[in-house]
Amino acid sequence: MITVQGLTLHFGQRPMFDGVSFFIGSDDRIGLVGRNGAGKSTLLKIMAGQQNFDGGNIGKPKELTLGYLPQEMAHNLELTPWQVAEKAFEEAIKLNASLDRIEKELEKATTDEEAIELATMLAHAHERLNTIGAADHDMQIERMLKGIGFVEKDMHRLMSELSGGWRMRAELARLLLIRPDLLLLDEPTNHLDLPAIQWLEDLLRTYPSALVLISHDKTFLDRLTKRTLEVVGGKLIDRKVPWSQYVELRKVEREQQAAQAKDQQRYIKGDHGPDQQVQGEGEQGRIRAEPDHEAR
After folding, report:
1. For the chain, where are the alpha helices, taking DSSP H only?
2. Taking the alpha carbons of 53, 59, 63, 64 in that order, is the dihedral positive or negative?
3. pLDDT per 10-residue tile (average), the chain, 296 residues
């Protein structure tokens, strides 16, 4: 779905990303982790097309729909939460218009190739309309806003009257109603109370999108992700396990690396241990150390 190859980004002399490569598939549920300032949010911005980078490339299909929720964003304060959520269905309006256009063009098609191409476009438009549920907008909006914590009277208040947290909830509702192919969520639980977090977790468990999630809530990460990407020193560590398993796996890997480094230092210093073998005169008295299998 998205292929990132050789991604490079420098902030001044500091390499934020140094030749980073990875792939996100349609079924991936990824926890993006790392120290503060490591570049997690920047990586989401790059994938969302809102941040330039120095080198490498990002490949994705033209028809890919992507939903991005940053930690901070500009809001249209003249709209209500209902109107913000309603914007999710702008795509449905455009798709219905394109259906009419494609059907008319298909009736006038003069070659098999043209007819096949138009029929494929028509099928994709119908499939997308079915995915986003274009038939019952009002019911979907109400259900989503209630789930995210809004009471009915607040759904129709101006965004200017609401706190930053409630404005972000309205944007999250809009994003979830779009049902994009890929969700990029940067700390989505920051402004949610416990019932809303539980509701969001339940929703995302069966949500039909691939997911890349940044969250300091480790339980939230564990329950929603199956793969972990850690940003470390401009590189990525990629393991196909959720957060808690990743922590244990990395601990074992670091212990193995430390043991290997220790064995290498012993070898350099000439302390080859019990596996050393002294060769005969024809070998000029060379010492050969067999590898320490326990350290592999």
Report:
1. 40-47, 81-86, 90-107, 112-132, 137-147, 164-178, 194-205, 218-224, 243-268
2. negative
3. 94 88 95 93 94 93 90 91 91 79 87 87 81 74 92 95 91 91 93 88 91 94 95 93 92 83 77 51 41 38
Separation CA 283–CA 54 (nearest Å): 53
Residue with tokens 């480790």: 218
Q: Yes or no: say if 7 and 21 are a contact pair by the CB < 8 Å rule.
A: yes
> CA angle at residue 265 from 260 to 269, to 5 degrees?
150
Bridge partner list, 22: 4
Six-digit token string for 225: 């992700």
CB atoms within 10 A of CB 160: 11
User: Residues in the chain, how many?
Assistant: 296
Q: Which of 239, 251, 247, 248 is nearest to 30 (CA)?
A: 239
Q: What is the pLDDT of residue 296?
A: 33
Distance CA 118, CA 248 (A): 52
The pair of structure tokens assigned to 278 is: 């002294």
N-to-C CA span, the chain: 35
Return d(Cα 106, Cα 120) in angstroms, integer. Answer: 11
- 158: amino acid identity, one letter: L
CB contact burial 84-93 (16+ within 10 A = b; e otherwise): bbbbbbebbe
Residues 159, 131, 175: CA angle, nearest 5 degrees: 20
User: Token pair for residue 264?
Assistant: 């290498």
**Nearest of 29, 32, 54 to residue 41 by alpha carbon:** 32
